Amino acid sequence: FRKRNPISVRAVTALNIIMRTENIEDPTYLTMRKYVSDLVAARLSLDATQLHKAWSRAPRDHQIAVLTALTQLGVRYVAGKESPYVQVDCSGLLWLSWRAAGVDMPRQAVSQMDSRMRVERDKAVAGDIVGEGTHVHIYLGVGRAMVHAPFNGKSVRLKTMSEEQYERVVWANPSNIATYRL
Fold it and tell me: What's the confidence (pLDDT) of residue 140?
């Protein structure tokens, strides 16, 4: 585990703290979450202050989903899998992340992107789903940044969408699943 991505290791620590409390303002949690967001910002050349603010605005379940997704950085993509720290596909990554947050997420990307859960791009927050066709990602809350489980046996990674991709993707809020029970 110590050889894992430093962002993943710190995300596990932040996740362990937030899972023990309902208080997303816990100073220990905020310190560790900021450390994680600073590492992510540095990796993607984002404004660290903006990323920290975006994560602070996100509801607790969204924060848990983002941190859980970050724990899977470096995990190999394998279609149809959702084995933490071993192998995942794109919808499996979302399934794991949102189930950790207490949301009974559907397993398939098509259901995860159901039109009843869609949100406008300007309303999207960290943890929301970014999708195109049958491929889904977790939005990091700033610009075009996301956690991505790429095809073809590559590993889960941080990614900045191209402008072209950003224009064609759709956004969904998994918290809406409780409303619609897909």
Answer: 98
Question: Is 135 in the active site?
Answer: yes
Active site residue 148: yes
pTM above 0.85, yes or no: yes
Facing residues of 119 across strands? 171
Select from 107, 157, 112, 106 the least CA-distant residue to 130: 112
Q: Is residue 105 within 8 Å of 118, Cβ to Cβ? A: no
**Residues of the chain above pLDDT 90, percent:** 71
Question: For position 182, what pLDDT does the model report?
Answer: 47
Summarize the confidence of residues 155-161 as an average pLDDT.
96
**Choosing from 52, 62, 137, 148, which is the catalytic residue?**
148
Interhelix angle for 27-44 vs 60-71, to 10°? 50
Catalytic annotation present for 62: no
36: buried, middle or exposed (CB in 10 Å: 19+, 13-18, 0-12)? buried
Quick one: average pLDDT of 65-72? Answer: 97
Other C-beta atoms closer than 10 Å to the C-beta of 107 total 14
Active-site hit among 52, 62, 90, 137: 90
- Distance of alpha carbon 147 from alpha carbon 137, whole angstroms: 6
